[in-house]
Each structure stands twice: as C-alpha cells, then as structure tokens.
Give the backbone structure.
Amino acid sequence: MAIAASESINWKEIYDHLLPRVFHFFFYKVGDPFIAEELTAVTFEKAWISRENYKQNIGAFRFWLFGIAQKVAVDYFRKSKNEIPLVSARIPSSQNVEREIETQIDHERLASKLKVLSERERLLVSLKYGAELNNREIARQTGLSESNVGTILFRAVTKLREEWEKQDG
C-alpha cells in the first residue's frame, strides 16, 4: 500500500518545487552554499531511497521531506562538530559582478550573525526563511505550538537585527 502512495508522487515536480526550499533551509542552517548543496542532494537521495515509507494519509510530502532534511542536518552537525561556518568564497559568474559580490558579503555576514541564535532558533529561522514554511507548518513540523513558534521567531529575528546593526570589527 505504501508503494502505491510513493508511485503517485511526481518526483520531477517535487524536485523542481522543493529543491530551492530545501537548499535554503540548509543554507540557513550551515551558512555555506557548497555544504547546503551537498546536504540537499543527500536529503533527496534519502527521500528517493525511502520513498516506499511515505504514506500520503499521514501528511504532506514536504513535511516528510523536511523531516528527512532535519535528520540530515543533525547528522551533519554531529559528524562535523561545526557550529556555523562562514560562507565559502565563490567567484561571481554573472554580468552584475558588484551585486553578486555584495550579496555574497551579506550572506557571509548573515552566516556569522546566525551564531548568536540557539540551535532551536536556527532551526525555526531555517524553516521560516529557508524552507518558506508558515508558522502553522513549522509548528506541525517541530511539535511546538503555533504561538510558541511565533514568539521564538520574533525573538530570534530581533536578535539578528540587533547583531546586524552592530558595527563589525
């Protein structure tokens, strides 16, 4: 019965729609686009391998996929013993080099600022701004209440704003 549920999934559509959200989830978690790409690939590989375990009546596919992504992130941090590395340097490839460099600098700065957040705060920020889930979806994903998610996110974003406004140096 679980096989029938997995066969009805349009994997190309899922991949096209959820790949950017999974990537951004990991980028917010690890702060490095190359590691985020690797972890995204691992997540989709694990989902494909265990596709027969997905049951449509239990919940939406994206919740199942982000559950896998959270486990991949935990495994990564357990193995690497890293906090949040700075974003790796990349050579800009577009015609608007200045804008791409500014964006890269902002990503590096954000990655360093995320260190002030607790693991739970980083998880919620990753789900909200990386995976683009709403508070209700985050509550369902994490087991927290919707109001608790809102409160934690508000405090986390306030901390990040305060850190962002501080002078680096």
